[in-house]
């Protein structure tokens, strides 16, 4: 029988992540997970009603419903796991239909998150809050206060470059958004592709980004010109990490776009994915 009548609001992964201090993650592969344990969404909680019902069911929703009723095999959803609960990164429509039809299990690619073993210092919380207030960017979670100073310097330099190029004064939050999309996100994508998270346990993507940019600046100063990101990444991996070009397994690489999409939703919650 379909499961109806749930009055619990849909949980937002961003809120849970900040409250629990989630920073470490492990890819768990594809599993059949209990539909009743899916309690939230990554970046789309506001679009869902209690019971995981869509506020505005669309053509896609009804197409997926017909396919499920016919017994068609659909691609696995992608979820973040926290404890025994799941948050949907990709597949909100499929989950809404599965709950409406009373399905017990659904196939999902699972990425499990854990709290950082370190307790945040007051200095770190203060630096993060100041960075978020000035730039408007939320969810760039570093574990070292100095990294937020470096990020702000990068954004201020980016603002000056944009102002010179556009011939007008560019506000800091406009520059921050452009920096996040054009600089930070592509670098983080490379970090995920090269599996560098495993080389820095307890550190987040923002920390590794900062380490690479520190290395890039130092090497550029040595040679007298900007060596570029690709050369900096190659040197960082060889000299600092001591590895060549490690990559994710093929299955995990396939979902990289989804994971970076999740990063976008966490940092820029006003961005909406179709």
Automatic annotation (TrEMBL):
Superkingdom classification of source: Bacteria
SUPFAM superfamilies: ParB/Sulfiredoxin (SSF110849)
Domain DUF4032: from-to ranges: 129-240
Residue ranges constituting the ParB-like N-terminal domain according to the UniProt record: 67-112
Protein name: ParB/RepB/Spo0J family partition protein
Originating species: Thermatribacter velox
């Amino acid at each position: 029988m379909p499961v109806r009548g749930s009055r619990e609001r849909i949980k937002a992964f961003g809120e849970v992540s900040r409250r629990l201090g989630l920073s470490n993650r492990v890819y768990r592969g594809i599993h059949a997970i209990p539909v009743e344990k899916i309690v939230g969404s990554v970046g789309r909680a506001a679009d869902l009603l209690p019971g995981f019902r869509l506020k505005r069911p669309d053509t896609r929703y009804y197409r997926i419903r017909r396919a499920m009723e016919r017994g068609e095999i659909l691609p696995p959803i992608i979820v973040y796991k926290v404890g025994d609960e799941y948050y949907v990164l990709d597949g909100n429509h499929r989950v809404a239909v599965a709950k409406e039809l009373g399905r017990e299990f659904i196939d999902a690619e699972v990425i499990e998150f854990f709290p950082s073993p370190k307790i945040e210092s007051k200095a770190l919380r203060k630096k993060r809050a100041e960075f978020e207030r000035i730039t408007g960017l939320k969810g760039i979670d570093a574990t070292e206060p100095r990294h937020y100073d470096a990020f702000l310097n990068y954004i201020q330099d980016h603002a000056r470059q944009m102002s010179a190029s556009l011939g007008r004064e560019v506000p800091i939050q406009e520059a921050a958004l452009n920096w996040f999309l054009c600089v930070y996100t592509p670098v983080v994508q490379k970090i995920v592709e090269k599996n560098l998270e495993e080389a820095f346990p307890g550190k987040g993507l923002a920390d590794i980004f900062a380490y690479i940019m520190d290395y890039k600046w130092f090497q550029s100063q040595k040679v007298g010109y900007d060596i570029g990101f690709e050369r900096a990444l190659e040197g960082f991996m060889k000299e600092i990490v001591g590895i060549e070009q490690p990559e994710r397994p093929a299955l995990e690489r396939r979902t990289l776009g989804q994971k970076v999409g999740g990063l976008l939703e966490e940092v820029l919650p006003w961005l909406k994915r179709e």
